[in-house]
């Protein structure tokens, strides 16, 4: 496994398992367990996914069958918009911990910026409180654009370590990546496979043939070579394995450029500027 290092010196695995749209049932538990058994060290969930209990059971089962320690893993969950407000953060965090049956998270994210800048800033102060109280290892955000950071950073005493945003070859987020690099805020991609849609792209398929890998592996590798943390979701054991077999090949500069050139600024998820949380 390869790791990225945050500006605060802490590390995070560059590939992890996503769990959005995974029901809170045995499938969630098994996917997480299979992932840990096959070398994953990072799991991404969120309160709003409704699956923290079964994800937690999968973590426990994975630790038992591998003999790993909790500290070998990197677990992320996210604060939902309904729990925004400085005074609500600690309780929401504790609720997620209880569901996951964990003592701490490695990373807690504000899930979206929301539509109210003051609430966003106050909520971040609640996130800072958690870190100052040593309840969480790292705090970050999700779906923030550079203008959200501009508003936040003038009031923040602790900078987010990471921004988890939609990122794939149809949405290459060049300006945001430049901004985050300059700020030393790590970028993390969600829906890296464009919810499987990108796997049918002809350019992606032809590069996959050239390198003798699957389209999904090509896209995950493209994320890694852009220094972006990537969390492909799968509940299929063979795919969970496949998605981690991405450290034994490299894309050439020309293959990277061909993928970058697919950009259409096309989203599969909501635009953060007008998302108030009415659907996930
Ligand atoms: N912060 C946010 O607002 C936000 C928003 C969306 C997602 N996320 C996070 O990002 C994670 C990933 O995004 P996502 O779940 O939207 O979509 P994704 O990872 O882009 O795509 C998942 C889909 O691709 C399929 N798949 C996975 N590996 C494959 C492979 N090797 N070959 C063929 N098909 C494959 C999966 O099928 P099977 O599962 O059936 O195998 C599933 O249908 C989420 O799970 C979540 O943790 C965060």
TrEMBL record:
<feature type="domain" description="NADP-dependent oxidoreductase">
    <location>
        <begin position="16"/>
        <end position="264"/>
    </location>
</feature>
<dbReference type="Pfam" id="PF00248">
    <property type="entry name" value="Aldo_ket_red"/>
</dbReference>
<feature type="active site" description="Proton donor">
    <location>
        <position position="49"/>
    </location>
</feature>
<feature type="region of interest" description="Disordered">
    <location>
        <begin position="260"/>
        <end position="280"/>
    </location>
</feature>
<comment type="similarity">
    <text>Belongs to the aldo/keto reductase family.</text>
</comment>
<feature type="site" description="Lowers pKa of active site Tyr">
    <location>
        <position position="78"/>
    </location>
</feature>
<dbReference type="InterPro" id="IPR036812">
    <property type="entry name" value="NAD(P)_OxRdtase_dom_sf"/>
</dbReference>
<keyword id="KW-0560">Oxidoreductase</keyword>
<dbReference type="InterPro" id="IPR020471">
    <property type="entry name" value="AKR"/>
</dbReference>
<protein>
    <submittedName>
        <fullName>Glyoxal reductase</fullName>
    </submittedName>
</protein>
<dbReference type="GO" id="GO:0016616">
    <property type="term" value="F:oxidoreductase activity, acting on the CH-OH group of donors, NAD or NADP as acceptor"/>
</dbReference>
<keyword id="KW-0521">NADP</keyword>
<dbReference type="InterPro" id="IPR023210">
    <property type="entry name" value="NADP_OxRdtase_dom"/>
</dbReference>
<feature type="binding site">
    <location>
        <position position="111"/>
    </location>
    <ligand>
        <name>substrate</name>
    </ligand>
</feature>
<dbReference type="InterPro" id="IPR018170">
    <property type="entry name" value="Aldo/ket_reductase_CS"/>
</dbReference>
């Amino acid at each position: 496994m390869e790791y990225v290092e945050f500006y605060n010196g802490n590390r995070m695995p560059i590939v992890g398992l996503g769990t959005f749209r995974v029901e809170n049932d045995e499938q969630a538990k098994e996917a997480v367990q299979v992932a840990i058994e096959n070398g994953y060290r990072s799991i991404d969930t969120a309160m709003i996914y409704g699956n923290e209990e079964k994800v937690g059971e999968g973590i426990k089962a994975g630790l038992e069958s591998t003999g790993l320690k909790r500290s070998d893993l990197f677990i992320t969950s996210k604060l939902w918009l309904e729990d925004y407000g400085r005074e609500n953060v600690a309780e929401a965090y504790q609720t997620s911990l209880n569901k996951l049956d964990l003592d701490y998270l490695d990373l807690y994210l504000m899930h979206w910026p929301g539509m109210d800048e003051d609430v966003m800033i106050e909520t971040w102060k609640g996130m800072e409180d958690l870190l100052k109280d040593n309840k969480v290892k790292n705090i970050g955000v999700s779906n923030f654009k550079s203008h959200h950071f501009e508003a936040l950073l003038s009031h923040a005493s602790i900078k987010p370590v990471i921004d988890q945003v939609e990122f794939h070859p149809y949405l290459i987020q060049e300006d945001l990546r430049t901004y985050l690099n300059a700020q030393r805020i790590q970028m993390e991609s969600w829906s890296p496979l464009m919810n499987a849609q990108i796997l049918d792209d002809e350019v992606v398929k032809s590069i996959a043939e050239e390198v003798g890998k699957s389209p999904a592996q090509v896209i995950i590798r493209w994320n890694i070579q852009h220094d972006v943390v990537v969390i492909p979701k799968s509940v299929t054991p063979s795919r969970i394995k496949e998605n981690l077999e991405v450290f034994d090949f490299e894309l050439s500069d020309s293959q990277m450029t061909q993928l970058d050139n697919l950009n259409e600024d096309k989203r599969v998820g909501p635009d953060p500027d007008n998302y108030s949380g009415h659907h996930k």
